[in-house]
């Protein structure tokens, strides 16, 4: 009997200084939402390598105390992630990596591996990954009545994870994206569950294959109101 395909839904937080990842979280789920494993880690040794001093990490002791995230060194996080994948692949599961705007996270992990490994040949993944960009996957089946609170400069609907989560969950009261890996992973899983129910084709990319993102698919499916309105809203 074949094993179900599993989705590693994950998020990374970076300093935007050459993309070093200091916060990473993931949850491994199947199409029915059953969870197989998870991880949520803040990496102080990456923070030490970021200059000038990056201050957002000062919030993390509170998150550690609440159990949202553990403090681990980069190599420990890398080992844990790859060990979980290896265990599930040996059991016969196909593993798909899922992130919102996955190309960003792929580049961020590559550059973090090079920074922490001391070589341009260093890699985070010990297997050839198969990727699903949740942004593209969602955009290709976005509800035709999709709108966002904000517009792009060209008058198109914005489609950040925050905007999409708000729309798909009917703008829950008090919601605000926390911009932490563990909270964004939860938001991404919420969006993934809704898209899976639409039974659309999964756009899967291997290794370093180019991923188009979701902006073009969304413009085609749900055209925005135009540049004039965008300027008036700004």
Brief synopsis:
With 234 residues, the protein is an alpha/beta fold. It contains 9 helices and 7 strands, in the order βββααβαβαβαααβαα. Strands 4-3-2-1-5-6-7 form a 7-stranded mixed beta sheet.
Task: Give structural attributes.
single chain, 234 residues, alpha/beta, Nucleotidyltransferase, domain 5, 7 strands, 37% helix, disordered C terminus
Helices and strands in order:
Elements: E1 6-14, E2 21-29, E3 35-42, H1 44-47, H2 60-65, E4 70-71, H3 74-90, E5 95-99, H4 102-117, E6 130-133, H5 134-139, H6 161-168, H7 181-196, E7 204-206, H8 215-221, H9 227-233
Parallel strand pairs: 1-5, 3-4, 5-6
Antiparallel strand pairs: 1-2, 2-3, 6-7
Overview of this protein structure:
This protein has 234 residues and is an alpha/beta fold. It has one domain: Nucleotidyltransferase, domain 5 (2-Layer Sandwich). It has helices at 44-47, 60-65, 74-90, 102-117, 134-139, 161-168, 181-196, 215-221, 227-233; strands spanning 6-14, 21-29, 35-42, 70-71, 95-99, 130-133, 204-206. It has a 7-stranded mixed sheet with strand order 4-3-2-1-5-6-7. Strand 2 and strand 3 (35-42) form a beta hairpin. The longest helix has 17 residues, at 74-90.
């Amino acid at each position: 009997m074949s094993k179900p395909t599993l989705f590693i839904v994950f998020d990374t937080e970076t300093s935007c200084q050459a993309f070093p990842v200091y916060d990473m979280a993931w949850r491994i789920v199947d199409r029915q939402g059953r969870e197989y494993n998870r991880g949520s880690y803040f990496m102080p040794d990456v923070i030490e390598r970021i200059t000038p001093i990056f201050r957002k990490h000062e919030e993390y002791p509170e998150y550690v105390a609440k159990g949202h995230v553990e403090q681990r060194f980069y190599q420990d996080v890398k080992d844990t992630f790859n060990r979980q994948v290896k265990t599930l692949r040996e059991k016969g599961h196909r593993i798909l990596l899922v992130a919102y705007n996955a190309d960003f996270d792929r580049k961020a992990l590559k550059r973090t591996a090079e920074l922490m490994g001391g070589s341009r040949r260093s890699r985070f993944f010990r297997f050839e990954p198969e990727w699903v960009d949740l942004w593209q996957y969602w955009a290709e089946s976005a509800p035709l009545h999709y709108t966002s609170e904000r517009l792009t400069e060209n008058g198109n609907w914005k489609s950040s994870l925050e905007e999409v989560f708000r729309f798909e969950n009917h703008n829950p009261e008090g919601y605000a994206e926390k911009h932490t890996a563990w909270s964004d992973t939860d938001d991404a899983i919420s969006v993934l569950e809704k898209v899976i129910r639409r039974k659309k084709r999964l756009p899967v990319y291997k290794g370093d294959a180019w991923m188009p993102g979701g902006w073009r698919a969304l413009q085609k499916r749900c055209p925005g109101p135009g540049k004039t309105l965008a300027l008036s809203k700004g």
